[in-house]
UniProtKB/TrEMBL annotation:
Matching InterPro entries: Acid_phosphat_B-like, HAD_sf
Pfam (any one): Acid_phosphat_B
Name recorded for this polypeptide: Acid phosphatase
Domain of life: Eukaryota
Record keywords, A-Z: Membrane, Transmembrane, Transmembrane helix
Transmembrane segments: 33-60
Length: 291
């Protein structure tokens, strides 16, 4: 009896110990599979947080760069517009190239060769085309004056007393001449008599006529060129005197078309004049720097 009771007592104690051990370990035991999932979850969360931080840093940097780029673009456009206006101011007042601000040096080539000039020329021509799409000649004495020096390439016009300019690229020259020729053709098809004028001397008439024909300009009414006495005049004075002469002969000047101010100033101008965009900015590489 004692042995049986002792055995039962021992078994009971062992069972009690085993149950106690299970109760203690049951709160801490994690299988290997669950541990892998737990560690993986923490790793994924960490990676996501790190990715989020990196993304925020990149976005902030991108916004900063974009803001800086927009500001720089605005500054460049603002300065470019200033230089463009100053170039017109120089032409209006017949200033020397030394007067052109040195800060505009970087913009002098970009105006003609990076699309701005062609865009402005096309728009200024469209303004004239829109006007003459609804305006017709009053009679056979209504004429339009067009500047030959806007039509022929610069190297043909050797003598014009103009400031020294930068040259457009050959592609820009060709496109610009095509735009002016388009205007010329539309005016001619509209029934207008076209009187061409140039600042070149009369002794170059033959070569100028050949150049006009080669460039596709035909059918004009007359070509005005400087006489020997007119070579001593300023360009604006010479052009004004020729306009007055036309009016004295009974002609009505409906319009003067030129990119140069000397052709658009003075008395006896047209009823509606059009200034085309000019592809000429002063050559300032060797000019005296001006702030």
């Amino acid at each position: 009896m004692d042995r049986g009771g002792s055995a039962r007592s021992l078994l009971s104690e062992r069972g009690s110990d085993a149950g106690s051990h299970y109760a203690i370990e049951s709160g801490f035991y994690i299988s290997s599979f669950a541990a892998i999932i737990f560690v993986s979850g923490i790793t994924i969360v960490g990676v996501l947080l790190l990715s989020l931080v990196v993304a925020l840093v990149v976005m902030l940097q991108s916004c900063e760069n974009h803001q800086s780029s927009v500001f720089q673009q605005w500054r460049n456009n603002d300065m470019f517009d200033y230089c463009n206006i100053f170039a017109s101011h120089m032409e209006l007042n017949n200033l020397e190239s030394e007067e052109f601000p040195a800060v505009c040096k970087a913009y002098a080539n970009s105006y003609t060769n990076e699309g701005q000039y062609l865009m402005e020329l096309n728009m200024s021509i469209q303004v004239a085309e829109n006007y003459f799409s609804v305006v017709t000649p009053e009679n056979n004495f209504s004429v339009i004056l067009m500047d030959v020096d806007d039509i022929l390439p610069p190297h043909i016009m050797q003598r014009s007393k103009l400031p020294e300019y930068r040259s457009e690229s050959e592609e820009v020259k060709g496109l610009a001449q095509g735009l002016v020729r388009r205007l010329y053709t539309r005016l001619q098809n509209g029934g207008w008599s076209l009187v061409l004028f140039t600042r070149e001397p009369e002794n170059q008439r033959s070569g100028t006529v050949d150049s006009l024909t080669a460039a596709g300009y035909e059918g004009w009414s007359s070509l005005m060129m400087r006489s020997k006495d007119e070579l001593l005049m300023g360009s604006w004075e010479y052009i004004t005197s020729r306009r007055m002469e036309l009016q004295n002969q009974g002609f009505t000047i409906a319009c003067v078309i030129s990119s140069r101010m000397d052709a658009l100033t003075g008395p006896s101008a047209g009823k509606r004049n059009f200034k085309l965009a000019s592809g000429h900015w002063p050559r300032i590489t060797d000019a005296k720097e001006r702030p």
